[in-house]
């Protein structure tokens, strides 16, 4: 118990209570990954017990940092801000929570056109580092932020389409195999992958690779990947499914590269009178909330948004602090709903 605690508690008081150094306390409060979980827990408990509040202005003066993280959401030029993929909005919310937990403010910018691209937050003393998330279809945006990384800026992204940025990414390959195996386990043998698989859509390519692995492991012949380009992901799913039906392609399952493609595919199947899941099973990927409200509700591979937000912030802070970081994919799990399991026939 502290003997001479007077006035506003400090990080030195927390250090004395826990029995660690003051720099260790500072790192633990920032969520630094070099601090083990037990120490971080004890520091956080002591801070709560002392009713400790970080004096951010003093911290900024001491560290010569802004204690702010910038986050850019790359949008497609055709999209209104209200049309942004809800996956990225959920991820943004979890990044904001993780930044706050680490004692950082979050500065958010939505960008789409070349003249709007801006990432000089470090040089402008607006932020200590930059997170980038958003549409893989905006190649010019990713090229711009990739150049910032080449210049030595602290930039971390979520699932960039190329290899020129440091990334945190989901376990896409495993998720793709999980989705496909689920349909195989329920008797599907002609499963189609719907979505782009080219190198500019790396996360989709990894999901397709997982699909291929599961099909081959089951002794089934994978179908060629199906994709019709369109303005929105929903339209891509709708038009691709329509093309599959019109061509006479035989399929009894669809693994959609993302939930929005899956929503479009489901709408097309419903419009064409194809029964889901009796005739065709359907599984999406991402875990957006809209999948719960489809008819029928859609099975999806759900990524751990909370973990994704934490890893993005932790990796960026490691880069800012010049510390090492061990890559780990964001885990995913299957949320099973009516779109993928045919009803059991009545006896």
Based on the model shown, name its key terms.
347 residues, alpha/beta, five-stranded parallel beta sheet, 11 helices
What's the β-strand tally? 10
Structural class: alpha/beta
- The coarse silhouette is elongated
- In which range does the helix fraction lie? 40-55%
Give me the strand/helix succession.
Answer: HHHHEHEEHEEHEHHEHEEHE
What does the largest sheet look like?
5 strands, parallel
Secondary-structure topology with pairs:
Layout lengths: L10 H8 L3 H8 L7 H13 L6 H8 L4 E7 L11 H16 L3 E7 L17 E6 L4 H12 L4 E4 L7 E3 L3 H14 L5 E4 L7 H16 L15 H15 L5 E4 L2 H13 L9 E6 L12 E5 L1 H17 L10 E4 L12
Parallel strand pairs: 1-2, 1-3, 3-4, 4-5, 6-7, 7-8, 8-9
Antiparallel strand pairs: 9-10
Give a verbal description of the structure:
It is a single chain. The protein is elongated. α1 (11-18) crosses α2, α5 packs across α11 and α9 (233-247) crosses α10. It has helices at 11-18, 22-29, 37-49, 56-63, 86-101, 139-150, 172-185, 202-217, 233-247, 259-271, 305-321; strands spanning 68-74, 105-111, 129-134, 155-158, 166-168, 191-194, 253-256, 281-286, 299-303, 332-335. The strands form 2 sheets. Strands 2-1-3-4-5 form a 5-stranded parallel beta sheet, sandwiched between helices. A 5-stranded mixed beta sheet has the order 6-7-8-9-10, sandwiched between helices. 40% of the residues lie in helices and 14% in strands. The protein has 347 residues and is α/β, with parallel strands linked by helices.
């Amino acid at each position: 118990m502290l003997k001479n605690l007077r006035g506003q508690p400090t990080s030195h008081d927390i250090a004395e209570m826990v029995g660690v150094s003051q720099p260790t306390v500072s790192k633990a409060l920032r969520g630094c990954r070099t601090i083990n979980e037990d120490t971080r827990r004890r520091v956080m408990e002591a801070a709560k017990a002392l009713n400790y509040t970080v004096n951010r202005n003093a911290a900024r003066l001491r560290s010569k940092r802004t204690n702010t993280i910038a986050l850019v959401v790359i949008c497609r030029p055709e999209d209104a801000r209200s049309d942004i993929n809800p996956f990225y909005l959920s991820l943004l919310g979890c990044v904001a929570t993780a930044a706050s937990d680490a004692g950082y403010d979050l500065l958010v910018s939505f960008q789409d056109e070349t003249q709007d691209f801006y990432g000089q937050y470090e040089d402008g003393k607006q932020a200590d580092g930059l997170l980038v998330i958003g549409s893989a279809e905006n190649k010019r945006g990713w090229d711009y932020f990739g150049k910032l990384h080449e210049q030595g800026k602290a930039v971390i992204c979520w699932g960039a389409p190329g290899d020129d940025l440091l990334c945190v990414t989901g376990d896409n390959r495993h998720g793709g195999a999980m989705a496909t195996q689920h349909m195989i386990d329920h008797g599907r043998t002609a499963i189609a992958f719907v979505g782009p698989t080219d190198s500019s859509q790396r996360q989709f390519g990894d999901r397709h690779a997982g699909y291929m692995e599961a099909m081959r492991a089951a002794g089934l012949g994978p179908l060629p990947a199906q994709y019709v380009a369109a303005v929105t992901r929903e339209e891509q799913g709708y038009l691709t499914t329509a093309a599959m039906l019109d061509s006479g392609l035989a399929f009894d399952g669809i693994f959609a590269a993302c939930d929005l493609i899956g929503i479009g595919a489901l709408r097309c199947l419903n419009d064409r009178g194809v029964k889901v899941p009796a005739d065709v099973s359907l599984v999406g990927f991402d875990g957006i909330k809209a999948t719960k409200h489809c008819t029928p509700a859609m099975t999806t591979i759900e990524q751990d948004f909370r973990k994704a937000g934490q890893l993005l912030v932790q990796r960026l802070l490691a880069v800012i602090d010049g510390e090492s970081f061990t890559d780990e994919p964001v885990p995913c799990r299957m949320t099973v709903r009516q779109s993928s399991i045919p009803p059991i026939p009545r006896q």
